[in-house]
C-alpha cells in the first residue's frame, strides 16, 4: 500500500492504482513524494523525585517545576492509542480558560454516545486518524477495531504516556497498593491533546505512516508546543519514514518532537527514530523496586521483582519445576523453555511453581500459560543478554522476575535434587535502591545505522516500572484474558521514558518560550549526567560500563537543563545542508521542506550539523586529520567566558580551536572546530571509542558545564611498529 505526499503536506490516497499509474501520479507537480505506507510499533509516583524535581513531596524554589510554573501555558500532544479522559490525571479542576491560540477540535465532542471522548480545559483536543490503518487491513478490519471512530483509548498505552508527560497531581495513586503516592506528569500545569494513530495490531504493527504524518500536521495546525511520540519502526532512509517526515514538519514550525528509541536492545545498531531533528530517548531504571523473594527449600533467597497481588499461603513450599522438564509432548524444547501458551504438560505443572526463561513472548503471557496449565506460581529468569534487569509486572498469579545469575543458580538447584521446592513472597515497595539508574536491557542502542554521523539515542530517562494513568477498557497486562481493571498501571519501555523527556521539554518551553526545538534538545543533552547514585559510571543491565550508544548524552537532569549556559542551535538552513549531504535531490528534499529546494554548491558534511554530540564514524587510521565544526549560543549571563576540556577517546588525539570562547552579550554565537587524529596504536576493525568535550565558565555550584559526548570510529588499515598491517 502506498500514498502520495503533496505540497503543503496534504495526502492523496493511492488505492487500487496499477503500478504503471504510480509513475504518472508521481510526476504530478503537486506531488513531492511517493513511498510505502509502513507500519510502526508502539514502543509516575517516583520518577520525578528521582530526577530531582521534588524531595519528599516538597518542590524547592530552584526546581524547574517552580521556575516554569509547572508548564502553565504550554500544550503537549502525543501520537498514540488515544486517551481515557475520565482519568484523574486529566481533571480540569482549577484550570483557567482554554488558551486563545488553541485551534484544535475534539472529534467526539458532538457525539451523544456516552462512550465517546469529551474534551475539557485539560484535554483540549482529541483526534483520530485511521485511513492508513484502514487501507492496510481493509475497511472491514478497521470497523472491527475497538473504538474505530473514536479517540477513546482501549489499549492504555496512550493514556499512560500522555499522563506521564503532563498529568495533573493525583493523590493516592497505586497499583494493587504498590507504589502508593501522588501521581503527576512532567508538566502538570500544561494542557494536553491526544492524536490517536495506533489501533489493533496488524502483522505486528499498530500505527501507519499515512496516519502518523496526518496527525503531525494536525498538531501543527492546532498549536501544540511539544509532541511525545512513543512509537517507531525499523530504521530506514528518512524520506521513507513517516515519523521522520512528520516530525521535520513539526520542528520547522517550532514544535519539539520527542520520540522513543525502541525496545529492541541490547544489540548494537537497534535504535530507531534516528533523524537528527528528533529527541530520541532511551530507557533506564530509577531507585524504586518492587521486590518479591523466591525462598528455596534449601533456605536460600533470591530477590526478584513483581506487582502480582496474588499471594501464596505463607511459609508453604511448593514443588519447583523447570518449564523444559514440564514440556508438553507435542511442544518443542524451545517453546517450553519460554512458556509459550500450550507448551506445558498440565499433569506435570499442576500445583507447582514453574521456572520459565525470558524471551520471545510477553512476560505476562508466560504467567498466563503457567496459570492455564494448572501451575500455582511463576519464576521468570533472565537470559544472559538481559542480565540484571528485573521488571515488575502485574501477573495473574504469584510471580517473581529474577536476574540471569540467580537463574543459573536456581537451575543448578533444580538439577541437584528431585525434591526442589520454594515459595514466592508478596511484593513490597523499596525506595532509594542502588545502583540507579542503569540502562534497561530492552532499550535500543546505537550506532545510528541511517546516519552514523549523528549519535542516537540522544538522552535516557526512567522507563522501567513507571506508574501512570490507564484505560478502563483493558486489564493491567493488556491481554485479553485479564479481566481486572485499574486506574493506574505500571509499564516499562522506551515508550515510558519518552514522555518523561516530553514533559521536561514542555517545562523548558514555558520557561524559555523563544527557544527553538534544537535549543531545547541541546539544553536537555548538554546538562545530562553519566553517573549513577553510587557516583560510579552508569552501567548496563549486566552491570558493565555503559556507553553513549546506550544512554546518548546521559541521564536527563531537568533542573540543570533550565540553565544550560550555552546551546547548540540548528535552523532550517542547517537541516537543508544535512539533507543535501545525504545525497537527497531537490524533489526528495521537498518532502521535508514543503516543496523542491536546490542544494548549495558545496553542502556541509553530515557530521558538521550543529549537534550537541560529536560523532566521527570514519577517522582514517593513517593519522590523517578530520575536523568538524560547531557553534554555540550564550543563553546565560553576559559577559561570559568558557574554556574547553576534552577527555579524548582511546587512541585518538583531539584538538579544539579556539579553546576559549568569550561572549560579550546574551544571544551571541561563537564557532569552534574540533580536529581528530588517530594515534599510533591498534584498533579493532570498525571499533568505536568514546570521550567527552566540556565547555565550562568557572568553578563553584553556579558554574555551567556544557558537556558533549564524543564518539569516534577508526576505519581502514594502518601499519604498526613492526610493519605488520593492523586493523
TrEMBL record:
Catalytic residues, chain numbering: 80, 157, 495
A Gene Ontology BP annotation from the UniProt entry: proteolysis
A molecular function (GO) term: serine-type endopeptidase activity
Keywords: Glycoprotein, Hydrolase, Protease, Serine protease, Signal
Residue ranges constituting the Subtilisin-like protease fibronectin type-III domain according to the UniProt record: 608-712
Disordered as annotated region, ranges: 140-161, 603-624
Low complexity bias (residue ranges): 140-151
KW Protease (keyword) present: yes
Coiled-coil intervals: none
UniProt domain Peptidase S8/S53: residue ranges: 71-539
CDD domains named in the record: PA_subtilisin_like (cd02120), Peptidases_S8_3 (cd04852)
SUPFAM superfamilies with a match to the protein in the record: PA domain, Subtilisin-like
Signal peptide per UniProt: 1-16
Family classification: Belongs to the peptidase S8 family.
Full protein name: Subtilisin-like protease
Organism ancestry: Eukaryota, Viridiplantae, Streptophyta, Embryophyta, Tracheophyta
Amino acid at each position: 500500500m502506498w500514498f502520495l505526499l503533496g505540497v503543503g503536506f496534504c495526502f492523496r490516497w493511492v488505492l487500487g492504482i496499477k503500478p504503471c499509474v504510480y509513475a504518472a501520479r508521481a510526476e504530478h507537480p503537486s506531488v513531492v513524494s511517493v513511498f510505502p505506507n509502513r507500519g510502526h510499533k508502539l514502543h509516575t509516583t517516583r520518577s520525578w523525585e528521582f530526577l530531582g524535581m521534588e524531595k519528599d513531596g516538597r518542590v524547592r524554589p530552584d526546581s524547574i517545576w517552580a521556575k516554569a510554573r509547572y508548564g502553565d501555558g504550554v500544550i503537549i500532544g502525543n501520537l498514540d492509542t488515544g486517551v481515557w479522559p475520565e482519568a484523574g490525571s486529566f481533571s480540569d479542576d482549577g484550570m483557567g480558560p482554554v488558551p486563545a491560540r488553541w485551534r484544535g477540535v475534539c472529534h467526539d465532542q458532538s457525539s451523544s454516545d456516552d462512550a465517546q471522548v469529551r474534551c475539557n480545559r485539560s484535554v483540549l483536543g482529541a483526534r483520530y486518524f485511521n485511513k492508513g490503518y484502514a487501507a492496510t487491513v481493509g475497511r472491514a478490519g478497521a470497523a472491527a477495531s475497538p473504538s474505530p471512530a473514536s479517540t477513546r483509548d482501549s489499549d492504555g498505552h496512550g493514556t499512560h504516556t500522555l499522563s506521564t508527560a503532563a498529568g495533573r497531581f493525583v493523590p493516592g495513586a497505586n497499583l494493587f497498593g504498590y507504589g502508593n503516592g501522588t501521581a503527576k506528569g512532567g508538566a502538570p500545569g500544561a494542557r494536553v491533546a491526544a492524536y490517536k494513530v495506533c489501533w489493533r495490531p496488524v502483522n505486528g504493527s499498530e500505527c501507519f505512516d499515512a496516519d502518523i504524518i496526518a496527525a503531525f500536521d494536525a498538531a501543527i495546525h492546532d498549536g501544540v508546543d511539544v509532541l511525545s511520540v512513543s512509537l517507531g519502526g525499523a530504521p530506514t532512509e528518512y524520506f521513507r519514514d513517516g515519523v521522520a517526515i512528520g516530525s521535520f514538519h513539526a520542528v520547522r514550525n517550532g514544535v519539539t518532537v520527542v520520540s522513543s528509541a525502541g525496545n529492541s536492545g541490547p544489540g548494537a545498531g537497534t535504535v530507531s527514530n534516528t533523524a537528527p531533528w528528533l529527541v530520541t530517548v532511551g530507557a533506564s531504571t530509577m531507585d524504586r523496586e518492587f521486590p518479591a523473594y523466591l525462598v528455596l527449600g534449601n533456605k536460600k533467597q533470591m530477590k526478584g521483582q513483581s506487582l502480582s497481588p496474588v499471594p501464596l499461603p505463607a511459609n508453604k513450599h511448593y514443588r519447583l519445576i523447570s518449564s523444559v522438564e514440564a514440556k508438553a509432548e507435542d511442544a518443542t524444547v524451545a517453546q517450553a523453555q519460554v512458556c509459550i501458551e500450550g507448551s506445558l504438560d498440565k499433569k506435570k505443572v499442576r500445583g507447582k511453581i514453574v521456572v520459565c526463561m525470558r524471551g520471545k513472548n510477553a512476560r505476562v503471557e508466560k504467567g498466563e500459560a503457567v496459570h492455564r496449565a494448572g501451575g500455582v506460581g511463576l519464576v521468570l529468569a533472565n537470559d544472559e543478554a538481559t542480565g540484571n534487569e528485573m521488571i515488575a509486572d502485574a501477573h495473574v498469579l504469584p510471580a517473581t522476575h529474577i536476574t540471569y545469575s540467580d537463574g543459573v543458580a536456581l537451575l543448578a538447584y533444580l538439577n541437584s535434587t528431585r525434591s526442589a521446592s520454594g515459595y514466592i513472597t508478596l511484593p513490597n515497595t523499596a525506595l532509594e535502591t542502588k545502583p540507579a539508574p542503569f540502562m534497561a536491557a530492552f532499550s535500543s542502542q546505537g550506532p545510528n545505522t541511517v546516519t552514523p554521523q549523528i549519535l542516537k539515542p540522544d538522552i535516557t530517562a526512567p522507563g522501567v516500572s513507571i506508574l501512570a494513568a490507564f484505560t478502563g477498557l483493558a486489564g493491567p497486562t493488556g491481554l485479553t484474558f485479564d479481566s481486572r481493571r485499574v486506574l493506574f498501571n505500571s509499564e516499562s519501555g522506551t515508550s515510558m521514558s519518552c514522555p518523561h523527556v516530553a514533559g521536561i521539554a514542555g517545562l523548558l518551553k514555558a520557561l524559555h518560550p523563544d527557544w527553538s526545538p534544537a535549543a531545547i534538545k541541546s539544553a536537555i543533552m548538554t546538562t545530562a549526567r553519566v553517573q549513577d547514585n553510587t557516583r560510579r559510571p552508569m552501567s548496563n543491565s549486566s552491570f558493565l560500563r555503559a556507553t553513549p550508544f546506550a544512554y546518548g548524552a546521559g541521564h536527563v537532569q531537568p533542573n540543570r537543563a533550565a540553565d544550560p549556559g550555552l546551546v547548540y542551535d540548528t535552523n532550517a538552513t542547517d537541516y537543508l545542508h544535512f539533507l543535501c549531504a545525504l545525497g537527497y535531490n531537490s524533489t526528495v528534499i521537498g518532502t521535508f521542506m514543503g516543496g523542491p529546494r536546490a542544494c548549495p554548491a558545496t553542502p556541509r558534511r553530515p557530521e558538521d550539523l550543529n549537534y550537541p554530540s560529536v560523532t566521527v564514524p570514519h577517522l582514517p587510521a593513517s593519522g590523517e586529520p578530520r575536523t568538524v565544526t560547531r557553534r554555540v549560543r550564550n543563553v546565560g549571563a553576559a559577559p561570559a567566558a568558557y574554556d574547553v576540556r576534552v577527555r579524548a577517546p582511546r587512541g585518538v588525539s583531539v584538538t579544539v580551536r579556539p579553546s576559549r570562547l568569550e561572549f560579550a552579550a546574551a544571544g551571541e554565537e561563537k564557532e569552534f572546530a574540533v580536529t581528530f587524529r588517530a594515534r599510533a596504536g591498534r584498533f579493532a576493525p570498525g571499533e568505536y571509542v568514546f570521550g567527552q568535550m566540556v565547555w565550562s565558565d568557572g568553578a563553584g555550584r553556579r558554574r555551567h558545564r556544557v558537556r558533549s559526548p564524543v564518539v569516534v570510529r577508526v576505519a581502514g588499515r594502518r601499519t604498526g611498529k613492526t610493519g605488520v598491517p593492523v586493523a
